[in-house]
Amino acid sequence: MKIFAQHGYGRTTKLEQGLAQNCIQGVIFSPKDESPTDLTNLVINLRKEHPDAELMIDPQFYVSTTVPAKDGHLPTYPYYRSPLSRKDLLPARNLTKFARQTMDFQRMLPVDHLLSATVPFDDFTDPWCQTALSLAQESLEYGYKFPQKPLLLSFVIDESAFRHQSAMKEFLDMITLFDVAGFYFIIKRRDAYYSQQIETNTFENLLYFTHTLGSLNRYKIVYGYTDLLGLPLQAAGASATACGWYQSQRFFYADKFRPSTRGSRPRPRYTSLPLMNSVLLVPELSAIEHQGKLQRALSDTEVDAHLAEDFSNSSAEWSLSTSTMHHWSCMSKVIQRMKRFDDAGERLDVVQTMISRAGALYDQLLEEGIQFEYRSGNSHLAQWNIGIENFRTQMRL
Questions:
Q1: Total domain count, the chain
Q2: Residue 59, Cβ neighbours under 10 Å: how many?
Q3: What superkingdom does the record give (predicted)?
Q4: What residues make up the domain containing 198?
């Protein structure tokens, strides 16, 4: 159970800081945001400085099906082709070429796992799903040649696919036939705005999906772009979850790689474990402080001591780097708590206890007149709890 950094634009020294402070235990690199030379040097240097860190590259081949694409440095990588249609991916020789070229770039670098090429799909019955499975099969056959770098098969799946359990179970039946180390999943969210919310039925099935692969079939399961939602996923059986510093690196939405006119920088947030949410530093956390309830909402990390002592100055100096280290530290703190238990049910007890306490604290703060924006509010708590309860009933955990 680990927290990884989801690398992206604006990294400065955040990866080095996070690894040095042990608030992250690995990195998933983004070729879109580095040239091949810079990415190569970054991977080599981090491997030298942090030999125990888990390093892997998300090749982001899936961006090739986006038109038009905001693909940054990706066109400078030897395996990337854009734009690609299903017609381009139908010939077996093309699938073989794309799968091998994607892995060839990674295998020359000191990474712990190879990640396969994939294409996104919206439903388990979608023709694109079959293309993704075909790419996985081609990657698997080539990956046998490099046992020193175990392969993780990649899939980018729309969250709506998890509404349909029967189709999901058929997909599980297919991928559990793969003789592979594990899987790298990205769940594509429909909402383009950051929040912890997820439909109850979708979440229940996602927990089932994770538990079946991770706990029951013993695959290594890594989720990219998962943020706080990664905590119950790790409780259910995921090996690691990843998030970055910008909100766009904490969840994956449908138009992430399309040109956008949205240029305003999001307002600073504070990750409150007692609320199980990232709330706005101003006005939400400042209103909590004004009501004398700050200590109830703090996450009890090293950074929080400074906020408790001098909220005005510390909040004014709340930089992106400080926020990132704090966010990673909060999630790692919960992971350490869950790692005490081998049983998924006991790990989920940890999460549900936090959900219950968060609900009670929200109620108290709302009674004090503190207002939260919809995306900072408590609606996700019921979604998570019902999803977990339904999953536990189904699996008898």
A1: 2
A2: 26
A3: Bacteria
A4: 2-253
Maximum Cα–Cα distance across the chain:
66
Q: How many CB atoms lie within 10 A of CB 381?
A: 21
Residue type, 92: A
Kindly state whether residues 207 and 335 are assigned to the same domain. Answer: no
d(CA 252, CA 194): 10
Q: What pTM did the predictor assign? A: 0.96
* Residue 13: how many other CB atoms lie within 10 Å: 9
Q: Choose among 100, 108, 115, 116: nearest CA to 40.
A: 108
Q: What is the DSSP secondary-structure string of 136-157?
A: HHHHHHHHTT-TTS-EEEEEEE
Interacting residues of 234 by C-beta distance below 8 A, sequence separation 6+: 1, 240, 241, 335, 338, 347
The answer to whether 31 and 45 have CB atoms below 8 angstroms apart is: no
pLDDT tens digits, one per residue of 84-103: 999 999 999 999 999 999 99
Q: Is the same domain home to 218 and 249? A: yes
Rounded distance between C-alpha atoms, residue 337 and residue 231, angstroms: 11
Residue 197, helix vs strand vs coil: coil
Closest by Cα among 330, 262, 267, 321 to 297: 330
Structure tokens belonging to residue 332: 């790692």
End-to-end Cα distance, the chain: 19
The tokens of 12 are what? 């400065």
CATH for 52: 3.20.20.70
